[in-house]
Amino acid sequence: MNNHLIQRLQSELAEIQAAGLFKQERIIASEQSAHIIANGKPVLNLCANNYLGLSSHPKTIEAAHAAIEKRGYGLSSVRFICGTQDIHKELEAKISQFLGTEDTILYCAAFDANGGLFEPLLNEQDAIISDELNHASIIDGIRLCKAERHRYKHNDMAELEERLIATQHCRSRMIATDSVFSMDGTIAQLDKIVALAEKYDAIIMIDECHSSGFMGKTGRGVHEHCNVMGKIDIITGTLGKALGGANGGFTSGSKEVIDMLRQKSRPYLFSNTLAPSIVGASIAILDMLSETTSLRDKLEENTAYFREKITAAGFDIKPGIHPIVPIMLYDAVLAQKMAARMLEEGIYVVGFFFPVVAKGNARIRVQISAGHEREDLDQAIAAFTKVGKELGVIK
Ligand SMILES: *Cc1c(COP(=O)(O)O)cnc(C)c1O
């Protein structure tokens, strides 16, 4: 063992501990759901990306079982050697149909989809113009690509236009943005971004991880919500949030883009194929979401209800319509303390602070689900009110 490394890490870890910023993982001894067993105790879960309540839905589990029965546990291969089953092609076609795109490529995670997106499509002759608050996987993907890197202030369309003007010498320009920003629940202004991209002949890439399955009237995503379906060049997304919550990601777009990614995208070429159980369950989920909007409708109602009641209780939340509801506390230690007290009250929430959000912007991020019932939301609001008063957050 290298003692220098161990000693250095011990002191760095102690610093994180001393600052009250050490991330502790709570142990869940149940399935993922609205009601879980965390640290040995039954609690109401308000911090999963389980937007549609599908993580342990009977239809999800049944379809996953059926796929294991028919196509086995795993493929022990990457896609291009012997890792492509008929169901992988079926799922890719279903995602394309759901999103209104030509073709789709699966990855084992959206982190991989973003990590492997830019380098095969762009080089030093091109430029990428990225929202400053984009997800870490977009940032890392851009770092792996030789294109010029430009950033614009979060959601600032005037600065995006400046960047488009400043990069007119480049062969291609790609605008890259989360369509929903996961810390704030802010929705990107895709209508304005499309107008700018048309004006300056730029390509648009959006990350729909916190959107696919429930944003927009029929759950197609923010491109539906903003009325720009068919005008986005590249969509990346995850199967690990609303669409079942296991693993898996995808990139969807024109046939040529997807063909090139299959040839050159490194996380696709050099990493194992998605497990059949996940593929089978994802197919069943997309079928269900195409037949009925009842789950996304319930999520929308739950979100509006919670946002209204928590605001009435006196909390400072980031306004909006997304099921991500940031309850602003600003102070990192307070956010930690409040999350711990809420757990004692039977509500599982997590405090977020630097470096996940900017310094001085600590918060508790609540995520509403279609798996929550009205009495769950009332219970959560009562607990927030009690703990909020106790800690002096509200009067
Ligand atoms: C969660 C998330 C990812 C990563 O998704 P995985 O499939 O878990 O790798 C990428 N981008 C955004 C915006 C996300 O929220």
Helix content: 40-55%
Question: Distance between the terminal alpha carbons, to the nearest Å?
Answer: 54 Å
Radius of gyration in whole Å, from Cα? Answer: 22 Å
The computed structural class is alpha/beta
What molecules are bound to this protein? pyridoxal-5'-phosphate
Strand arrangement in the largest pleated sheet: 3-11-10-9-6-4-5
In total, the number of strands is 15
Largest sheet: 7 strands, mixed
Proportion of strand residues: 15-25%
Model description:
- With 395 residues, the protein is an alpha/beta fold.
- Helices cover 43% and strands 17% of the residues.
- The chain has a 7-stranded mixed beta sheet with strand order 3-11-10-9-6-4-5, with helices on both faces. It has a 3-stranded mixed beta sheet with strand order 1-2-13. The chain has a 3-stranded antiparallel beta sheet with strand order 12-15-14.
- β1 (35-38) and β2 form a beta hairpin.
- The protein starts with a helix and ends in a 5-residue tail after the last helix.
- The mean pLDDT is 97.
- Pyridoxal-5'-phosphate (PLP) binds next to α5.
